[in-house]
Design brief:
56% helix, Rossmann fold, Hypothetical protein af1432, 14 helices, alpha/beta, disordered C terminus
Length: 324
């Protein structure tokens, strides 16, 4: 299948020249004359690369680029800004808008083709990474589906963990890792038999030993993903306790990554507030009281639990205000 290139330029002669050249090279090309149409074509044509003139009537190329990069579906699509402007300030403005590369007018044909092919190769690698990530998420959801009582668990953990990370002022890359970890944290349970996973009774020591391997298995499954570098410690350590009584490594105190502690708090809360075969769901207040008692035993970080408590209470107040 031919790679798709979108050209946005208000000069018909420039569009025709670029279109003719790129089609001759085997690309599928769509052309448009303004920024609004370019954004619409991003959704319908789904280009692999965008050649975008900066100076157009109405919406500028800078603004079109910003919007493309702010949209989840197109944020990874390479954008090349075509400009007759040579000022450094304009280049900086283009970089700040999210542009991946620049071409100066008049366009050198060899340079155009070299930059186009280079960016399309990078886009292919990115697509492969996204596909691999999608496979992991699908596997994680299939594991979740084995237990009819945990529907929506992964999405809730992903969303609430990220919210707590934001409340604590964590860097954006750690918040992104929390979102991913919320989905794949229990992916290692793929090796746990249903007889153990769905057993409503206390597990035997032998069954517990099998269950406690799932964080290590999950880490190994996700380890080949270089983009999961910050996710791996969350997967491995989200069952550790601050007093060293957790698993798989018996970490203590600050040895446990804060992101793993965040996911664990949210995981425990979600488990307590979800109905299971062996008990009814606790109310949010009851769940937080249980977690306070467990914190007194040395299981959780008290400051982290306090921040989580505030987040839950504020969330319920906001919901209540919204229904007035």
């Amino acid at each position: 299948m031919a790679e798709r290139i979108l050209i946005a330029d208000d000069h018909p002669a420039a569009r025709i020249a670029l279109t003719t050249l790129l089609r001759r090279e085997g690309f599928e090309v769509c052309e448009t004359s303004n920024g609004e149409e370019a954004l619409a074509q991003c959704a319908s044509f789904r280009p692999d690369l965008i050649l975008l003139d900066i100076v157009m009537p109405g919406m500028s190329g800078f603004e079109v680029c910003r919007r493309i990069k702010a949209t989840p579906e197109t944020r990874l699509t390479p954008v090349v800004l075509i400009t007759g402007l040579s000022e450094t300030e304009d280049r900086i403005k283009g970089i700040n808008s999210g542009a991946d590369d620049f071409l100066s007018k008049p366009i050198d044909i060899n340079e155009l083709l070299a930059r186009t092919r280079s960016l399309l190769r990078l886009k292919q690698y990115t697509d492969e990474l996204e596909n691999a990530e999608s496979v992991l998420f699908t596997l994680a959801h299939s594991i979740e589906a084995r237990d009819p009582y945990t529907g929506g668990h992964c999405e809730r953990l992903s969303e609430m963990s990220a919210r707590l990370g934001e409340k604590l002022g964590l860097p954006e890359e750690q918040i992104k890792a929390l979102r991913r970890a919320g989905i794949v944290h229990d992916i290692g349970k793929v090796v746990v038999p249903d007889a153990i996973l769905l057993n409503p009774d206390p597990l035997s020591p032998e069954d517990m030993a099998i269950m406690q391997k799932h964080p290590i298995v999950g880490e190994h499954i996700c380890k080949p993903m270089r983009t999961f570098r910050l996710v791996l410690p969350i997967i491995r350590h989200h069952h550790e306790h601050r007093d060293g009584s957790g698993y798989p490594d018996g970490l203590c105190g600050d040895e446990i990554p804060i992101t793993a502690s965040i996911l664990q708090l949210v995981d425990v809360y979600d488990a307590l507030t979800t109905t299971r075969p062996y008990r009814q769901a606790s109310t949010p207040g009851e769940a937080l009281e249980i977690m306070e008692r467990e914190s007194a035993k040395g299981w959780w970080d008290r400051d982290l639990l306090k921040a989580f408590h505030e987040m839950i209470l504020n969330g319920h107040k906001s919901a209540a205000n919204g229904h007035r």
